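CO-FOLDING WORKSHEET

Operator: S.A.
Ligand of interest: magnesium ion
Run index: 371
Mode: holo prediction, single chain
Checklist:
[x] sequence pasted
[x] SMILES validated
[ ] output reviewed
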Amino acid sequence: MTSDTDRGGEDLLAFVRKFADHDTFSIEEELGDGYVRLKITEAERRQALQDIRCVEDVVKELVRNARDAGAANVYVTFQKEKGRWRNITVLDDGVGIPESMHRRIFEARVTSKVRDVVQDTFGVHGRGMALFSIKQVADDMRLVRSQEGRGTIMQARIDTAGLPEKKDQSSFPRLEADEDGTPQIAGGPRNVPRVLSEFALESQGLQVFMGSNAEILATLFHHSVEMRKSWSAGEEGMRRPFWFELGNIREGRMLHGFASQELGLNVSERNAFRVLELEIDPLMSIGELLGEVDAVLPAKRADLHRKSHADWSDHLARRLSQDDLSSICASLQAAFAEIGERYYLQAETPVVKRRRNRLIISLGLHEKEDT
Ligand SMILES: Nc1ncnc2c1ncn2[C@@H]1O[C@H](COP(=O)(O)OP(=O)(O)OP(=O)(O)O)[C@@H](O)[C@H]1O
Ligand SMILES: [Mg+2]
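OUTPUT RECEIVED:
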């Protein structure tokens, strides 16, 4: 939420940088691997601290960094704890951060963006201040993992009593088509769904996902299965992000462990098991959702659960609706009732599970009670 005066300050910085000789003017120290520490005035430093005024600003800066790192996919987990603490994890498949910079990126003025000041619709950036500023105002701000070529996982924990957020974090913005029919944001609360919608609409080739830890884990799992298929088909030069291994995991406890240790995602063993059973649907991307919605009716977060048709070709069992599964169960129960009579057996309510191209139906039996 940059005010006009802020933007004036940023424009000036951009203006000065354009004409100044970078190497003599703005760089204080070369840190190696393309990273530098910038010279920056005290005024700019104070300005940067003021830029992080709400939870939405934190998400904006973290996703912006992922986008600048050339990510094709950004996954944002957004969970509230005890109605007060906001936990945010941002996972991306961008270029990653060299090990030697893992601590330094949280220091003021450390950036890799010095030679090309980056401008987007949110303004000019590349001051090396966002992570530093977030760290000052968040309860916790840390790098979970990052490796060159494998992406980055960042995590923030915010006390919303100190750093507020919009109350409504479920509504997506209202859209209107411009002359070319391209959707533009026309209104709605300035919440996190809106920040992410702005990225999804403006950054070509960037898919943005938002959900709970379990929903994001389900989405990563699904994407990993897809990725592993292209990989075994011999696709060259494929990036293998940290969640690449997920699709190989077959056991709930292992998935639970991998999610927390490797991805920084706390998901119960029960939910990890449900991910493996394909009981938690992968989310559709925000871009996909916004491309589908009726302009008059803004979307809600729950709409991200709508099954995208792209999934259909993959897991055949997913095509069946819950209602049709129930009706299969009812028919089975009816068919067994008559046969069971002859054996003095009674069937329990059938349990049906969808497993890729298979329905697994189990029918518990017990002795028929005398009536
Ligand atoms: N997700 C990421 N992937 C790769 N590199 C990252 C990521 N997040 C941060 N970095 C690195 O850390 C540096 C510091 O990030 P930070 O957001 O503090 O500053 P900045 O993006 O350079 O400028 P600004 O203050 O305008 O955001 C970045 O320049 C970038 O090199
Ligand atoms: Mg940044």
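REVIEW:
DSSP finds eleven helices and 16 strands in the chain.
The domain at 53-107+131-314 is CATH 3.30.565 (Heat Shock Protein 90).
[x] output reviewed
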